[in-house]
Each structure stands twice: as structure tokens, then as C-alpha cells.
Amino acid sequence: MGGIALKRRHAAHLRIAGMGSAMLSAVIFGANPMIAKAAYMGGSNDIALVFSSTLAALPILTAFMLLFKIPFALSKHQIRHILLTGFLGGVTTMLLFSAYNFVATGIATTLHFTYPAFVGLGSVILLGRKMNRMKVGALVMSLAGISLAAGSGSMGDMRGIVLALASGITYAAYILYLDKSGLKQMNFIKLCLYLSIVKTVIAGVYGLMAGRLTVRLSPYGFWMTILMGILAVILAVILFQIGVCYTGAANAAVYSLLEPVTSLLLGFLFMNEQITMAKGIGCLFILSGIFLTIKGDKISDLGGIHYENRL
To answer: So what's the pLDDT on residue 305?
Structure first.
């Protein structure tokens, strides 16, 4: 009995760590628009920023690998899984940024953040996970909040709608595959390094084809790019991986909805952006959905937990 109680306490601690990691990851990702706008002012553009920030992250991650004596070797099945996962992550970014060229940011954001619904559905169908009524209600409430927080406006060009919705689907596939493939058992720094390599290649190829990599960065733009690499490419990604590992894909996806709430708050505090009543109510809906997810999460369900992974 004592061993079972100890295991349950350990599971509870891991879930709390995973929950906190996923939420902190969302907060860091929520700062992306503010950092990106600063980088654009310094001479960058959307695709160049993705390429440059992921490229800047590579030597930092490599240094951590050497510092902590993490082996670089990969098995054949790990290489296959990393290529597919990295491809899904890289394509998601390209699809979302391309959507911004055709529809308003609010519409693209709403469609992209449908991904928790796809993750929840995929977790039930593909991973055999169960979602109780409270979690289903939390998901519905969160999605309604996203719709309100993103603001109203015309739907715009159908191409942008398709691209934004596709970005939500590919990101859901990224999260589910990260959970199902066994990559969550890999060292988090090592996984982040190899996923970043794949994403750098994808962004580089896309940027060259679109002619978007030729930029002249000011010192300010350069340091904003480095900051994006450290915060978004390294820290936020690793924290999200921890969240998926210790709470499961569906829960981590819902906790990630703190991202648009953070973006709205930072925009209000530092960029003189207005928060309308609808956006405020939307944020409350999102936070309520996250609270219901936490409340509906059963500690006895160890589906997302792996005990051997270490930073």
C-alpha cells in the first residue's frame, strides 16, 4: 500500500510539473507577436525570423548537449519520427504565416487555435485516451473563448481560411505524433535540437523559394532574433514537450490556450492595444476552460507520464 501511495504522489508531482510547464510555454509563446514586431522593425520579416531564430538556437542547444554530456546518436526509428514531427512543426509555421497574407490575424488565430479540438478527438481515437464530460465542456468553453478573443471581422480570402485551418490540423498532428511516437521519452534538449534542425531546413527552403530570406538586420533586429531563438525555439518548445510528456497531448493542448490570452495582455500593457469587452469575456472563457481541464484531470490516469526522461 505504501508503494502505491508513493507512486500516486510521484504521479501527482509530475502532473503538476507538466501542467506548469505547458502553461509557462504558452505564456512565452504569447510574447512572440511582441518580439516579432520588434524584429520586423529591425529589418526582418516573418519567414526570415523563423529561419534565423531556429538557426540561432542550434549552437546554443549543441552547447547544452556537450555541457550535459548528452549523446548525439539517434536510432533509425528516432530519425524517422523526428523527420516527420519536425516536418509537421515546420509546415504548421509556414501555413499560419502564409494565412496572414490572405485573412485578418484574428480570423487566422481563431482557425489555428481549433487544434485542441483535433488533439482531443485524436487522443480518443488514436491514443485510446478518455475525455470525461468536464474536459469536453472545458474544450468547448475554451474554443468559444478563442472565437471571442480573436475579434470579429469578415472571413476574407478562402485561401487564407484553408491555410489557417490546415495549420491547426498539422499542429494537432504534431502534438499527437509527439505523444504517440515515443519521442516524448527522448531527452528534451536532444529532441529540441533535432526538431529545430528540421524546422530550419524547411524554413530555409521555403524562404529561398519565396525570396524572403534577404534581409538587412539592424543590431536591434539581430538581438530580437536571438531573443526569439532563446525564448520561443528553445525554452518554450522544451517546456511544451515536458507538458505533453507528463500531462498528455489533450491536456497540454488546452493549457496552450493561455498563449492568446498572454498576447492580448502584453499588447494592452506594452503596445497600446485595446481589449474590448468581447475579448475580455473570451479570455475569461479560456481561463475557465483551463480551470475545468485541471479539475477534470485524474491523477490516477498515468497515460502521459514517463518516469525516465531527464533534462
So the answer is: 41
Q: What is the DSSP string of 75-137?
A: -HHHHHHHHHHHHHHHHHHHHHHHHTTTS-HHHHHHHHTTHHHHHHHHHHHTS-----HHHHH
DSSP string, 178-234: HHHSSGGGS-HHHHHHHHHHHHHHHHHHHHHHHT-------HHHHHHHHHHIIIIII
CB 175 within 8 A of CB 253: yes
Asked if residues 36 and 49 have their Cβ atoms less than 8 Å apart, the reply is: yes
Of 266, 199, 273, nearest to 229 by C-alpha is 199
- What residues in the chain have per-residue pLDDT under 70? 1-3, 104-106, 150-156, 296-311
> Residue 139: helix, strand or coil by DSSP?
helix
The length of the chain in residues reads 311
Query: What pLDDT score does 2 carry?
Result: 58
Here the cell at position 73 is 546518436
